[in-house]
Amino acid sequence: MEKKFDNKPNNGAIFAVKSKKNPAQPDYRGELLIDLKTFPVENNTIKISISGWKKSWTGGVYLSIQAEKPWTGEQTQSAPYQRKQEIQDDDIPF
């Protein structure tokens, strides 16, 4: 039985598309779950910084992503890259 992949708030993953039928189709596809309460809304828009970590699993490589408030320079240099919630390899549905 295949395990369902559940994103945690402000995290997600994109996986390589294995069978493209059209060259215009994306090479990677996935989902990012956004907690809208985390980000300020200005003029009906939200600005989000995203970070990615290349991960491997038995089926290949995927990109684990995290959304955060944009870096303002007020945080420490390493703050934007501190992973708050790690997506474990066990969370992958394959």
Give a brief description.
The chain has strands at 11-16, 28-33, 41-42, 45-46, 49-57, 60-68.
Describe this protein's structure.
- The structure is a single chain.
- The protein has strands at residues 11-16, 28-33, 41-42, 45-46, 49-57, 60-68.
- Strand 5 (49-57) and strand 6 form a beta hairpin.
- The protein has 94 residues and is mainly β.
- The strands form 2 sheets. It has a 4-stranded antiparallel sheet with strand order 2-1-6-5, with no helix packed on it. Strands 3-4 form a two-stranded antiparallel sheet.
- It has one domain (1-72).
Helix/strand-derived category reads mainly beta
Coarse morphology: globular
- Which residue ranges are poorly predicted, with pLDDT under 50 across at least 5 consecutive positions? none
Number of strands: 6
Please estimate the helix content. under 10%
Mean pLDDT, nearest integer?
79
Main-sheet strand order equals 2-1-6-5
Query: What's the order of the H and E elements?
Result: EEEEEE
Provide the β-strand percentage band.
35-45%
Biggest sheet features: 4 strands, antiparallel
Radius of gyration: 15 Å
Q: Termini, distance in Å?
A: 9 Å
Domain module count: 1
Question: Treating each run of at least 4 consecutive H or I residues as one helix, how many helices?
Answer: 0
